[in-house]
Design goal:
The protein has 15 helices and 14 strands. It has a seven-stranded parallel sheet with strand order 3-4-2-5-6-1-7, with helices on both faces. Helix 2 packs parallel to helix 3, helix 3 crosses helix 4 and helix 13 crosses helix 14. It starts with 9 loop residues before the first helix and ends in a 10-residue tail after the last helix. By secondary structure, the chain is of the alpha/beta class. The structure holds adenosine monophosphate. The site of adenosine monophosphate has 14 residues, from helix 3.
Length: about 400
C-alpha cells in the first residue's frame, strides 16, 4: 500500500516523501482514512509505530490553506514530547504554507506569545502552560477543528486530566477528536465518553507487548553489585547508544556521575534539571556527543531517539506499563535493540507483575566473567527450569545478546 492511495494532499505527500517514508505503517494505514473522513479515532499502538504521522498527516491535509488559528491542537504530557511532535509536524508540513508552534513550561513566554499572536495553524502544547495562556487571555481555542490527546494514559498518570478537561471547555463542541493511549483505564474511558463522538477504535498488535524487534533479558544480582554489574555490562556490550533508566532523580544523578568517572560520555535527563539542561542532554545524546543517557521515566514515553542500541533498567520499573515504554526506546521503527533489566531480590514481585502484564517470562542470564556475590535469586536455577540463571550461561549469552558487532548510527 502506498501513501498516495490514502487521500493525503500532494503537499503533505511531498513532506512524507522527503522524510523517506515509503509505506504507511499499520496504524497510519488504519487511522488516516478515518481522520480524513472526519471521524473521531481512538488509537492504541506500540511506541515507535508511527502514530505521530498517523494523526498529523490527515489533519494537515484537512487544514489545507493557512488561516488565523490555532485550528489544530495537539496536547502532549511532557515538554520533550511536545517539542518532538512540533518538529515532526514542521517536517511533514514543509511543502505546505501551514505553520506550527509549541508551548510548554520551563521557558520564557516571548516566543510563544509571538507565535500565538500570529495565529498558527497547528499548536502543540503541554496542558499546564496552555492553561496559563488561556487564563491570561494570550491564547484562544475557539477556532480549533482538530484536537489530539496524545499519550492520554500518561497525562492521567501525571495528574493532567483536570487541566485537559478545562482546556477542552475552551474548544468548540463541533470538532474532531483523536485520542492515543497505550491503555484505557476507567478515567480515560470517562474522558472518551465526555469528549468524543462515536469514535473508531484502532488497536495495532497486542496492546501490552513490547516491540518484537527487541530482545530482552534480566540480570539478577545482589543489591551491592548493581553499579558494578552495569559498568561491566557497558564494558562488554558493543553499543552505539544506551539509555539507563533509574527510578529516582537522585539515583539517576548518582549513576550518571559513576559512569562519567568510569570514562563514559554521559548525559542525564530528569525533571529536576532545567529546561535548557534537558534540551542539551537530549540533543547531545541524539547527535552522538553522549553515548549514555541516564534518565528517569520522564524519558520513557514516546520520545523518538533514533538508534538507541540498548536500554538498561538500572531499577526495575514499578509499573508494568513503564517497562513496555522504557523498552520501547530501543527497537524503534523495526531496528533491533536489546534491553537489560538489573534485578535485585526485592524486585521479585515487580518483575512478576511485568511478566504477567506482557504475557511471557523474561529470561534470566549471568554476565560472563563477572565476579558475582551470592544472591538468593540464583536459587531460581532449578533443574528443568529453562529460564533459570545457571542454564543461561555461556553461548546463549555470548551469541544471542548483542555482544556482536557494533551497529551503525542512522
Ligand atoms: P512515532 O511512533 O510517531 O514516534 O514514530 C517512530 C519513528 O518511526 C519516527 O522516527 C518516525 O519518523 C518513523 N516513521 C513513522 N512513520 C514511518 C513510515 N511510514 N516509514 C518509516 N518510518 C516511519
Amino acid at each position: 500500500m502506498l501513501f498516495r492511495k490514502l487521500g493525503l494532499s500532494p503537499a503533505v505527500l511531498e513532506g512524507v516523501k522527503a522524510m523517506g517514508y515509503t509505506e504507511p505503517t499499520p496504524i497510519q494505514l488504519r487511522a488516516i482514512p478515518h481522520i480524513l473522513a472526519g471521524e473521531d479515532v481512538i488509537g492504541s499502538a506500540q511506541t515507535g509505530t508511527g502514530k505521530t504521522a498517523a494523526y498529523a498527516l490527515p489533519i494537515l491535509t484537512k487544514l489545507g490553506e493557512p488561516s488565523h488559528g490555532p485550528r489544530a491542537l495537539i496536547l502532549e504530557p511532557t515538554r520533550e514530547l511536545a517539542a518532538q511532535v512540533e518538529t515532526a509536524c514542521r517536517d511533514f508540513m514543509r511543502f505546505t504554507k501551514l505553520s506550527v508552534a509549541v508551548v510548554f513550561g520551563g521557558v520564557g513566554y516571548g516566543k510563544q506569545l509571538d507565535a500565538l499572536r500570529d495565529g498558527v495553524d497547528v499548536l502543540v502544547a503541554t496542558p499546564g502552560r496552555l492553561l496559563d495562556h488561556l487564563q491570561r487571555g494570550t491564547c484562544r481555542l475557539n477556532k480549533v477543528e482538530y484536537l489530539v490527546l496524545d499519550e492520554a494514559d500518561r497525562m492521567l498518570d501525571m495528574g493532567f486530566l483536570p487541566d485537559v478537561r478545562r482546556i477542552l471547555d475552551h474548544c468548540p463542541k463541533q470538532r474532531h477528536t483523536s485520542l492515543f493511549s497505550a491503555t484505557i483505564p476507567p478515567e480515560i474511558e470517562t474522558l472518551i465518553k465526555w469528549a468524543m463522538k462515536a469514535p473508531k477504535v484502532i488497536e495495532i498488535g497486542a496492546r501490552r507487548s513490547p516491540a518484537e524487534t527487541v530482545k530482552h533479558v534480566i540480570y539478577p544480582v545482589s543489591d551491592t553489585q548493581k553499579l558494578d554489574l552495569v559498568l561491566a555490562l557497558l564494558g562488554q556490550v558493543k553499543f552505539d547508544s544506551v539509555i539507563v533508566f533509574c527510578r529516582t532523580r537522585n539515583r539517576a544523578d548518582r549513576v550518571g556521575h559513576a559512569l562519567t568517572r568510569n570514562n563514559h560520555s554521559v548525559a542525564t535527563l530528569h525533571s529536576n534539571r532545567t529546561q535548557k539542561e534537558r534540551e542539551q542532554a537530549l540533543k547531545g545524546f541524539r547527535d552522538g556527543k553522549y553515548e549514555v543517557l541516564v534518565a528517569t521515566d520522564i524519558a520513557a514515553r514516546g520520545l523518538d531517539i533514533l538508534n538507541v542500541s540498548h536500554v538498561i533498567n538500572y531499577d526495575v520499573p514499578q509499573h508494568p506499563e513503564d517497562y513496555v515504554h522504557r523498552i520501547g526506546r530501543t527497537g524503534r521503527a523495526e531496528a533491533s535493540g536489546d534491553a537489560f533489566t538489573i534485578m535485585v531480590a526485592e524486585d521479585a514481585q515487580h518483575v512478576q507483575s511485568i511478566e504477567r502484564f506482557i504475557g511471557r517470562k523474561i529470561e534470566r542470564i549471568k554476565l560472563p566473567g563477572f565476579d558475582y556475590k551470592y544472591t538468593a535469586l540464583f536459587d531460581e536455577a532449578k533443574p528443568g527450569n529453562t529460564q533459570a540463571v545457571g542454564r543461561a550461561r555461556g553461548s546463549r549469552v555470548a551469541g544471542g545478546y548483542s555482544f556482536g558487532p557494533s551497529r551503525r548510527r542512522r
